[in-house]
Design brief:
This protein has 317 residues and is an alpha/beta fold. It has helices spanning 2-19, 65-68, 73-77, 103-118, 131-143, 162-172, 179-183, 188-198, 210-221, 225-234, 265-274, 290-293, 295-308, 313-316, and strands at residues 23-29, 39-45, 54-58, 81-85, 94-95, 124-129, 148-154, 251-256, 278-283. Helix 1 packs across helix 9 (210-221) and helix 8 crosses helix 9 (210-221). Pfam families: Abhydrolase_6.
Amino acid sequence: MGFGVIPLMEYIARRAFLAAGLRPSTVTLPSTSGDGEARTIHYWAPPGEPRLPPLLLIHGFGPMATWQWRRQVGPFSRRFHVIVPDLLCFGASSSSSSPPPSESAQAAALLDALPALVGTAARVAVAGTSYGGFVAYAMARAAGPERVGPVAISNSDLLKTAEDDGAFLERAGGGWTHPADVLMPLDARGARRLMELTFYRKQAGAMLPDFVIRDIMKKLFSDKREEKIELMNATTVGTDAFQLTPLAQDVLLIWGDHDQIFPLDKAFAVKSCLGDHVRLEIIKKTGHVPQMEDPDRFNKIVLDFLLGSQGSPSNEH
């Protein structure tokens, strides 16, 4: 029974993407190190050359990029050429790199893929949620406003520290020694707690029997589990290797007011560090994934920002 829920989730998400005109595809990236390293990016996008300005939607650490963005692809596709990739080591994308890619390496891979996705000249808007916000920021800083911008970042603590990780484990209620234990649960107890931390509203999945939830979690979080733990450890945000600096692009920060993974007070700190090009929007009665809990409000905020941004891709067409 538990495994029957996963195909249903995949079917619902896939139907939303297909209805928006997106189709699955794959691009193999050239080696950058000369050692034949294989990097493959799986993505969803409309077939053919972009007829609308491109918009890249970058997922977080949760399962299935399609599930995380399924309520956005329809509305966004009316105004943008929407591209939803699987990051390296997620979904159907893969990388043989060792050590595992940092968020900057994830950004570099997406930038390497852009010529195949949108051509060599197009400027792409980017939206990232949670870990995807780290990648979106890294893309914008690495490529500059001529290639990437504007940038929407949702519930992504770019000032995260080891102390923040410790506070998160305390909020989770104890019994876990690493954020990965909470964010990638394999049992019913962990899954219920993750849902409570992620969503403001009670989720229907929390009402399922333990054995069903346990089967679902094993299916969702056992795939590439070790690689994802290594990805968490490879993240430079919160280390001496990372410094948050303002971007030249217009930036939108979105935050759920009840986020228990990256609390709301961090939104104001991130905004202060990112400078004058930043607009902060707080979505009430949502948690860590406002794009899922209040998609209508989220979509309106993002579309208004992208369409109104100075020098946005849409304004250039």
